[in-house]
Structures are given as structure tokens and as C-alpha cells.
């Protein structure tokens, strides 16, 4: 487990990160408002900016490579439905839909 800080349009939430669980599912369980629709990397309503802790996250998925432009990925954008914590540490994310 590690510290997870989520910035949403409704405020700031701090919770424990669960290894291997997508951020969208974790937010849903914790009743944290994190916009999403498909949960498969297609709609991008869960577009997320990684502020800190990218080293504790899984690699960018094929779905993210298809949906997000290379420039977005280089700026630290990911899809919340694809992001998973891979090791304990402090991770800070911001929900940034289009």
C-alpha cells in the first residue's frame, strides 16, 4: 500500500493505494468522484495527469497509446481506467477530462 492523493473538481481526496487496482475502480469503491464511462481506455473521460509518483505506476498501456496523443503522454497524461499502482509509494493524480 501507499499514499494516493486524488484531485477532482469536487476537491482533494487522500486514500491508501491498492496494488494492481485501476484508479477508476479504486475511486468508485471509495466514492471519490472520478469521471469515467467505458473503463476500457476508449472514452477518455477518465483522463488523468500524473503529478507525482509515476515510478510507482504500471507502464503506459496499448489503450493509452491509441487514445492519448504522444504529446499528452509526454506531459504526464494517462487514463484513470488504465493506471494501476505497481509498488508502494506516494502517487498524486489530477482528473483532467477534455
TrEMBL record:
- InterPro entries found in the cross-reference section: 2Fe-2S_ferredoxin-like_sf, 2Fe-2S_ferredoxin-type, 2Fe2S_fd_BS, Beta-grasp_dom_sf
Coiled-coil intervals in this record? none
Drop me one GO molecular function for this one.
2 iron, 2 sulfur cluster binding
Q: Which domain of life is it from?
A: Bacteria
The residue ranges of the 2Fe-2S ferredoxin-type domain are 14-85
Q: What is this protein called?
A: (2Fe-2S)-binding protein
Recite the lineage of the species. Bacteria, Bacillati, Bacillota, Bacilli, Bacillales
Amino acid at each position: 500500500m501507499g499514499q494516493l492523493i486524488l484531485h477532482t473538481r469536487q476537491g482533494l481526496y487522500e486514500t491508501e493505494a491498492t496494488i494492481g487496482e485501476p484508479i477508476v475502480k479504486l475511486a468508485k469503491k471509495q466514492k471519490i468522484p472520478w469521471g469515467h464511462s467505458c473503463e476500457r481506455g476508449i472514452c477518455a473521460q477518465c483522463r488523468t495527469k500524473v503529478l507525482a509518483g509515476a515510478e510507482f505506476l504500471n507502464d503506459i498501456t496499448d489503450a493509452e497509446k491509441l487514445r492519448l496523443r504522444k504529446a499528452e503522454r509526454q506531459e504526464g497524461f494517462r487514463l484513470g481506467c488504465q493506471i494501476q499502482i505497481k509498488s508502494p509509494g506516494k502517487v498524486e493524480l489530477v482528473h483532467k477530462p477534455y
